[in-house]
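Cross-posting from the chemistry board since nobody answered there.

I work mostly on the small-molecule side, so proteins are not my area. We synthesized zinc ion and want a rough idea of how it might sit in this target. Sequence and SMILES are below. Is it possible to get a predicted 3D structure of the two together?
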Amino acid sequence: MRLNTDGLIIREQQTGEADRLVTVLTRDMGVIKAFVRGARSIKSRSLSATQLLGYSRFSIFMNRDTYTIDEAEPIEVFFGIRNDFARTSLAMYFCELICELSPEGADSPELLSLALNALYMLANNKIPVHQLKAVFELRILSLTGYMPNLLGCCECEKFADDTMFFDIEASQLYCSACSKPQHSYMLGIGTVTAMRHICLSDPQKIFSFKLSNAGLKELADIAERYLLATTQRRYKSLELYKSFT
Ligand SMILES: [Zn+2]
């Protein structure tokens, strides 16, 4: 059986002399692993289409549990990312997060559009990289069942206070009167508002918000801490990114 779909290559592994195994976030089938047969014989145009970060139109042959890509037509290869180490490592981190968090086998158009929008912003230098990273971290967690509980103080339901406290482990917010500072992370209301915007807005709006430099730093810090606490693992690409920034 043959299937045509578009997708983003989020991982590539060499499996033999000429064959490669790639992981693809597809529009119609979620994340799949597929072989690229005879990668040397495939036309060079198709080769770039099946490399990491290639977003392409694929013709995939399915035989029982095995998928094989036999044709690939590149749509976007994000060249703007590849000439900068920090941006390349951040893109690899996004791919690693998708591999970690995406539900296998389920279709995920929202996840694909988040990934493509983030890579587009990264390639074209649209917003500061630490802002982009925080948006991606919080949004991918929200899309995959780990949205932080930001609706209001978890004890008195107060929606907004000048200073609020977020308990990362419990994913709960406190106002200053109810706070338990020893267990939680202090946030300005601007940062809380930005987090709500990222988690709850329409997909096309999540990257556009204004925050002071101090607020952006706070946002970047809390987003990464919450992601690492939630997924409970280390990311090589994140460590690489930090060595370049
Ligand atoms: Zn309260």
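Reply from a structural biologist on the board:
Welcome over. Reading the output above for you: The pocket of zinc ion is lined by residues 153, 155-156, 158, 174-175, 177-178 (CB under 6 Å). DSSP finds eight helices and eight strands in the chain. Happy to explain the token format if needed.
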